[in-house]
């Protein structure tokens, strides 16, 4: 028997229409190169999105075309999100911080004919000119006064194009499984791979994300997504915010700048902000060094990499702000799990709550997860057993652009049983809290035992004089592999190898104690702010453990 309910398609444009009608006065505040504090409300935003669709059509863009963006978090990038997807084209966000050859590969692979580019990214594009034969039009996200000189053909000015259009446009309804967005993810091997989101996956992801126990998004909140809009849709904030009418504050190119973040948080009364641990360390250090605070900030969402305990403690003790850690991937849109207490945990001590905040959180409705051993047998949720993490759900990728989406086939991330193989190694507590212990390829296999590099790194960064730490496995004649701890010290501090080992002694089990500690000035990071272990493995290729 068929239901008798309307078959309304889940459309990204419906979020915009809802915001325009219900929250016309809610503000979207942005930092851009041409304006340090641009303000517009959702009514104006909706109108500009319609102008932009007419611009796209005047440039010859058609249904299904992948429209490339190389831009920071600001209102023009938001307009692209809604206008491109809402009209049936595909908003392809590209990370300008990738290696130039990767940027060129991604643009060519996705066959982007039109690119929308921030002023600051123009030099990168100029340098890639010879490699972008298929790009027909470059639109600079700027007004006429700030247009840069360019040797690229057909460079147009965003604001001029908008001025020349009418806002007469009706958002179409089409199949909710139509592609709406695209984001390439860089594995450590091979070329970047394109994850393709749909209207349905995006809307469901935003709905789940906005639930009270998930992000608690609300009209009462002001949100500052520091996580870039070129990386997994800024974790869905651009959609969830308009769904519930949250005021958005967008930091533009000033994402890692503690001073700008502090200024935005205090002057715009930001209540919630999201970013990778590196961003929070930069902000906390700035606040501490300058004796400043962020009284309005209630919640800092952290993800993308394991959150050091010190971030949880410093936010709580110095700023009365709760750290909420989540886990996800480009392939999972990204929301997979997020921290939240359960009923019955009201009496936990601060220490115990901190312990839970340092885990990766509980499953969100819509995402099923399991951990399996080397024989693909499911492991118990007992907080002890750890194995390969697999997930599935309506906002999880089933394939990559241009590669096979047949489960189990080469190039497909989904196994024969229909689960996405995340590449993460994890355990799950009886209460359902996920604990990522490693990436499959980073785990150290010592004498047949698995050692978590993240566990050692987390323990090390809890030392007040250690700024950052990374652990890689290196060859050992007896154990095959043993952990090598690589440490970056806080400015002006000095520690010896013995000091560090002594500090770790009662925090790690014997097998996990690193065999050696080396000190370097800076750790290499990937374009998305994660420690680049591949780079570290290259640097320490010839490293040998001291003979005891
Ligand atoms: P990406 O697709 O670039 O966003 O990277 C996804 C990967 O980042 C995951 O597979 C994890 O390895 C890692 N990751 C994301 N969130 C966390 C977290 N909270 N703790 C530890 N690792 C994380």
Structural class: alpha/beta
Q: Distance between the terminal alpha carbons, to the nearest Å? A: 74 Å
Are any ligands bound, and if so which? adenosine monophosphate
The CATH first-level class of one domain comes to Alpha Beta
CATH topology of one domain: Rossmann fold
Strand order of the largest sheet: 2-1-11-10-12-13-14-15-16-20-19-18-17
What topology does this entry show?
Blueprint: H1 12-22, E1 27-32, E2 35-41, H2 42-58, E3 66-70, H3 75-86, E4 90-93, H4 100-109, E5 114-117, H5 122-127, E6 137-140, E7 155-157, H6 158-163, E8 179-185, E9 193-198, H7 199-209, E10 222-225, H8 237-244, E11 247-250, H9 258-267, E12 272-275, H10 277-289, E13 299-302, H11 309-319, E14 322-328, E15 335-338, H12 350-357, E16 361-363, E17 368-372, E18 387-392, E19 420-428, E20 433-439, E21 444-446, E22 449-451, H13 453-461, E23 466-476, E24 480-489, H14 497-505, E25 516-519, H15 533-539
Parallel strand pairs: 1-11, 3-4, 3-5, 4-8, 5-6, 6-7, 10-11, 10-12, 12-13, 13-14, 24-25
Antiparallel strand pairs: 1-2, 8-9, 14-15, 15-16, 16-20, 17-18, 18-19, 19-20, 21-22, 23-24
Helix pairs in contact: 1-2, 1-3, 1-8, 2-3, 7-8, 9-10
Bound molecules: adenosine monophosphate.
Describe the fold and architecture.
With 548 residues, the protein is α/β, with parallel strands linked by helices. The protein has helices spanning 12-22, 42-58, 75-86, 100-109, 122-127, 158-163, 199-209, 237-244, 258-267, 277-289, 309-319, 350-357, 453-461, 497-505, 533-539, and strands spanning 27-32, 35-41, 66-70, 90-93, 114-117, 137-140, 155-157, 179-185, 193-198, 222-225, 247-250, 272-275, 299-302, 322-328, 335-338, 361-363, 368-372, 387-392, 420-428, 433-439, 444-446, 449-451, 466-476, 480-489, 516-519. Among the domains are: 9-218, 3-Layer(aba) Sandwich (Rossmann fold); 367-428, Luciferase, domain 3; 444-539, GMP Synthetase, Chain A, domain 3 (2-Layer Sandwich), CATH 3.30.300. Helix content is 27%, strand content 24%. The strands form four sheets. Strands 2-1-11-10-12-13-14-15-16-20-19-18-17 form a 13-stranded mixed sheet, sandwiched between helices. The longest helix has 17 residues, at 42-58. The mean pLDDT is 94. It binds adenosine monophosphate (AMP). Residues 185, 232, 303-306, 325, 327-330, 334, 360, 422-424, 436, 439, 528 line the site of adenosine monophosphate.
């Amino acid at each position: 028997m068929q239901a008798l309910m309307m078959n309304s398609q889940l459309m990204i444009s419906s979020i915009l229409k809802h915001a325009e009608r219900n929250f016309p006065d809610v503000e979207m505040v942005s930092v851009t190169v041409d304006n340090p504090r641009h303000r517009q409300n959702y009514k104006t935003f909706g109108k500009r999105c319609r102008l932009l669709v007419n611009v796209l059509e005047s440039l010859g863009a058609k249904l299904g075309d992948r429209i490339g963006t190389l831009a920071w978090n600001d209102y023009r990038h938001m307009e692209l999100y809604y206008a491109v997807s809402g009209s049936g084209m595909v908003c392809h966000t590209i990370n300008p911080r990738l290696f130039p050859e990767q940027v060129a590969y991604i643009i060519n692979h996705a066959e982007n004919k039109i690119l929308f580019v921030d002023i600051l990214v123009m030099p990168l594009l100029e340098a890639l000119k010879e490699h972008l034969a298929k790009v027909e039009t470059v639109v600079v996200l700027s007004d006429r006064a700030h247009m840069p000189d360019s040797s690229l053909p057909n460079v147009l000015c965003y604001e001029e194009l908008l001025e020349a259009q009418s806002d007469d446009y009706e958002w179409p309804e089409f199949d909710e499984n139509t592609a709406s967005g695209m984001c390439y993810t860089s594995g450590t091997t091979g070329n970047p791979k394109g994850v393709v989101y749909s209207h349905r996956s995006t809307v469901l992801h935003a709905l789940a994300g906005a639930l009270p126990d998930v992000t608690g998004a609300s009209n009462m909140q002001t949100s500052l997504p520091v996580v870039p809009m070129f990386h997994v849709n800024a974790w869905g904030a651009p959609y969830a915010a308009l769904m519930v009418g949250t005021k958005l504050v967008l930091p533009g190119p000033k994402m890692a700048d503690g001073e700008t973040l502090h200024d935005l948080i205090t002057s715009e009364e930001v209540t919630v902000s999201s970013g990778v641990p590196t961003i929070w360390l930069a902000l906390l250090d700035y606040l501490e060094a300058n004796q400043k605070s962020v009284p309005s900030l209630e919640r800092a969402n952290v993800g993308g990499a394991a959150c050091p305990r010190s971030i949880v403690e410093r936010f709580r003790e110095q700023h009365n702000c709760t750290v909420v850690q989540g886990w996800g991937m480009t392939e999972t849109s990204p929301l997979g799990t997020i921290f939240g207490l359960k009923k019955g945990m009201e009496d936990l001590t601060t220490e115990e709550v901190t312990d839970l905040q340092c885990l990766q959180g509980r499953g969100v409705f819509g995402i099923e997860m399991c951990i399996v051993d080397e024989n693909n047998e499911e492991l118990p949720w007992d907080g002890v057993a750890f194995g390969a993490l697999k997930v599935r759900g309506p906002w999880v990728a089933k394939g990559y652009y241009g590669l096979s989406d047949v489960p189990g086939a080469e190039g497909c991330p989904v196994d024969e049983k229909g689960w996405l193989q995340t590449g993460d190694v994890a355990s799950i507590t009886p209460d359902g809290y996920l604990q990522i212990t490693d990436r499959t390829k980073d785990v150290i296999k010592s004498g047949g035992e698995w050692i978590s590099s993240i566990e050692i790194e987390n323990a090390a960064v809890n030392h007040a004089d250690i700024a950052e730490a990374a652990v890689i496995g290196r060859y050992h004649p007896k154990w095959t592999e043993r952990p090598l701890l690589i440490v970056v010290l806080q400015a002006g501090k000095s520690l010896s190898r013995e000091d560090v080992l002594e500090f770790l002694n009662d925090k790690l089990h014997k097998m996990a104690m690193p065999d050696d500690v080396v000190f370097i000035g800076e750790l290499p990071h990937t374009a998305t702010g994660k420690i680049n272990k591949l780079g570290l493995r290259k640097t320490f290729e010839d490293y040998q453990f001291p003979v005891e």
